[in-house]
Structure formats: C-alpha cells, structure tokens
Design a protein that fits this description.
- This protein has one domain: Beta-Lactamase, CATH 3.30.450.20.
- It has a two-stranded antiparallel sheet with strand order 1-2. Strands 3-4 form a two-stranded antiparallel sheet. It has a two-stranded antiparallel ribbon with strand order 5-6.
- The protein is an alpha+beta fold and about 110 residues long.
C-alpha cells in the first residue's frame, strides 16, 4: 500500500520512520510475551542496544511495585492503562516514568501492546 503523504513511501516505511524518529520511548510487544521492537529513544533512555533490549524480559527493566504493575496489566486487558512505574537501566540506576499503554490489534488479529 502506498502512502498518501508521499507516493514513493509505503505505509510500512512511514510507520518505521515515525516510530524510529519519535523522541518518546516506544516499546512494542506481544501482550504477555516477547518484545517486538524498541525505538532509539528507548535504547538511549535505558542504555541498551536494540539487540540487547529485545532479549530482555519485562521484569528485567520494569521494577515498579507489584500492585501497580498488576493494576496496569488488568487495565490493559480492557483496552488501555496509564500510570507511573519504576524502571531499571542497564547500569542499575532506577528512575520513575509515566507509562501510557494501549492494547492494539495487529493485522493478523494478534493483540500488541
């Protein structure tokens, strides 16, 4: 499919350019599963390369209190969630960050967060 913005760009190219150049950390993952992609802002924020980040489990960099994580997980089952969560960088430093997540359905019908 061709983009209406530029006839030489596919929608996939436009998505990748937008995702990669976003200054906000973006993490795409299968609900309750593997991380599919992270953008450069995510890698810079956490100190991992993309390859390293894709090998991580959620609990290796999301370290917020269990009650808040469960609240967000339950909210995501119904569509979307937001809140403040504690994260851990590669160097071991901790920081709090605002999370806004939406349960999205991909082209294959798979839930993607």
């Amino acid at each position: 499919m061709v983009s209406a913005f530029h006839p030489d760009l596919s929608l996939e190219d436009l998505f990748h350019a937008t995702f990669e150049n976003d200054l906000t950390a973006q993490i795409l993952k299968i609900f309750e599963g593997e991380i599919l992609a992270v953008n450069s802002a995510t890698c810079e924020m956490f100190g991992y390369t993309q390859e390293e980040f894709l090998m991580l489990q959620l609990n290796e960099f999301v370290v917020g209190n269990i009650a808040e994580r469960e609240k967000m997980r339950e909210a995501l089952k119904t569509g979307k969630a937001n809140g403040i969560i504690s994260f851990k960088k590669k160097d071991g430093a901790f920081f709090n960050g605002k999370v806004e997540a939406k349960n999205m359905v991909g082209l294959t019908g798979t839930n993607i967060v």
